[in-house]
Structures are given as structure tokens and as C-alpha cells.
Amino acid sequence: MxxxxxxxxxxxxxxxxxxxxxxxxxxxxxxxxxxxxxxFSFSLQLADLDLNTVYAPVLWVxxxxxxxxxxxxxxxxxxxxxxxxxxxxxxxxxxSIFFAKFFGNLTLLFLVELIVVPLYTVFTxxxxxxxxxxxxxxxxxxxxxxxxxxxMINSITVQLRSSRVLxxxxxxxxxxxxxxxxxxxxxxxxxxxxGSEGWLYFLIIFDLIFVIIPxxxxxxxxxL
Amino acid sequence: MLQNxxxxxxxxxxxxxxxxxxxxxxxxxxxxxxxxxxxxxxxTTLIRLIAGLGSGxxxxxxxxxxxxxxxxxxxxxxxxxxxxxxxxxxxxNMNFFSRMYDKYDSKNIERLLRKVDLYFYRxxxxxxLSRGMQQRLSLARLLVIDPWLMLYDxxxxxxxxxxxxxxxxxxxxxxxxxxxxxxxxxxxxxxxDFIYKEVKxxxxxxxxxxxxRAEL
Lengths: 224, 216
Prior knowledge:
heterodimer; A: mainly alpha; 9 helices; B: six-stranded mixed β-sheet; four-stranded antiparallel β-sheet; 5 helices; 31% strand
């Protein structure tokens, strides 16, 4: 187990080093997320909608769209020059590659959210007596789930032609239950109310399922 | 140390096309096998299956009579492409792969980089190196893990005369260390002074094995 975690950490650190050196993925994802924030904020102001109703769904749509762009490149640097083959031999356990990529995507999502959430809140002028802890827990579990789905789908689509188009097409249907749960849970958090425990449990179970699926399937996925 | 590698009735299909058909092959410690044959004969598929990068539809590959997976540190594979991170430097690539195999030793890495004549370029990003230099680094990465089984797919491609000589020297050293080596090449003339087992393929079939081949 220690050896397994050591390999995950090595691959994750290597990916971070490459990402911060090239800034390819981070910059494009953050810029795209910022554009979405501006567009949605202006549209919401012009439409004169009740912010209490639309704040959470729009926030999660921004996060979902941004994550699609960010996670699209997770396995790309391994595909170039067949590095994936050297990595497969070096890792022994294929799933360690998956989880390293997952943590990379999760880090990217957190960085994007760190910028998007405050800006979106300021631009929409939204304020409420929210339950911050519940809000943060929802962000964590929602991002965890999105990163898992995105990493798994990306590991499949990267081996196919038109992978950039296929990622959202395959990812969005899988993300629907997660999206419903995070929106409901975020709404509860923003109303500082209770009664959202059910959605939090749903998120935990959803995330656990998508932790187990790659453990079973990832060897076959990489053999495609 | 690996005593023998046995491929038993190995077959592989992709779609309706037979890539490998009932391949049988036995390699002993210290043996160098050279796979030859026209393009599309199944050589690369077989070497990838031996590396553990995929599985056959039928048959098996045995190490000392036992089934195996891509176990740590036992298989070194040098493919068509250099299989290195172009955004990392020469040294970072070596550090990363040696750490993955838990064989990190800065002195050894320095020695190997000097051996492949890349020590001077250790802080250079791999993407900025020439094809031949990338190939040398790929060779150094193979050596840093010190595998029991060494698989090379067209390793002479892109190497200059010095690089080819270096590779020949390494193959010779590994033969003396009793490692099993499998090599795909169309340039068998470069192995003239080696004793090797030539394994000829055609249309997914192993058509001939010539034992103890040496052109001397």
C-alpha cells in the first residue's frame, strides 16, 4: 500500500511540475472559467432573475464546463511519444496512474473554484446567510465526483480520435445525478438550512462508487 | 535472475485480423533474440505482449514456468518512440523513472548520463534534444532500472554511428550479465559480430528460428 501511494505521489508531483512549467492547462481553464463567470453574471443581471433560485445551478454549470476543458488534457502528455507504455511498466498497478491523474484534475478544479466562486459571488452581487461548512463540503464532494468522472472518461477518450468532442458527450450524462445533488446541497447551504444530509450522503456514495469502478476497469481501459 | 522466457501457443486478433498465430518461442538467460520480418508481421505486437502491455487471446507467456505481469523492475522496454516526457529535463526524466522503480541513485544516474554522452545536456528539456539524443536517453532510462528482460523495438533508428556503437556495446554487456534480450531490427548487419537467435516472422506466424546466428 505504501509503495502504491508512493507511486501515486510521484506521478502526481511530476504532473504538477510539468503543468506549472508549461501552464498550458491551468491558464486556458482559468481564462475559460472567467469568461463563463462574466457571461453568466451579465446575463443573470439582464434577465432580472431571482438569484436565490439560479445562483447554485449556474455556479455548477460554470464548474462543469470549466472542468471539461481542464480535464481534457490529463492523459495527453502520456499519449505523446508513447510515454504511457513506460509509465505502465513502471507503475505495475495501472490504477495508480488513474488516481495520480485524478488528484491532478482535483487540484486543477480547486484552483479554478478558488478564483471562480468569489468572483461569481461578487459579480452577481449575491449575499445570504449561508452555511459555509456545508457549502465547502458540497464543493469538495462535487469536485471530487467531477474529477473522478472526468478522469475516467478522459482515460477512454484519449485513445480515440475526436477525443476533445467525446469527453463532454460521454461525461455530461454521467454527471447529471451528481449535478442534481450538488445543486440541491448548495441551495440548502445557501439558505443556511438543514435537510441536505440526504444529498450529502448521496454525494459520498456517488464518489465512492466512482473510486471503485476505475479500480476494476482501468486495466481494461488502458488495453483498449 | 530470469532463467528462461517461454511463449506458448500465443495468438492475438484485432477485429477479424490475426496479428499473431500460435507463436512458440523459448529464450534462455543471456540469449539475444532478433525478430525479423516484413512490416505488419506481428513483431511489435509480440514484443509488447512480452512486455506485459496487453494480453493475447490464446496461449501464455511464462517466466521460469510461471505466469507474470509487468512486474516492477524486471522488464525494460524501448519502443518505437522515446517514451520520455518532453517538458521535463534529461535529469528529471531519469530521476522520475528511477524513483518509480525505487532505484534512484544520483551517482548511477550521473554515470549512465556520461555513458550515453548526455551529462552535459542534463538540464536541457527533452523536447529540445535531437532524435538521436532522445534515443540515447531512452537507452539510459532502460539501463537505470537494470531489468532482467530487455526489449528493444527498432533501437538503431535515429542513432548516429557512435550511438549505434554504444548500443552494440550495451547489448554485449547485458549478454555477459546473462540478461535475456529481444530486439526488432531490419538492420541485422549491425549485429554481425554477435551470436544471436534470429526469429523470422511473416503474416503473424513464426516461420523460422535460426539458432546461434553470427555473420563472422
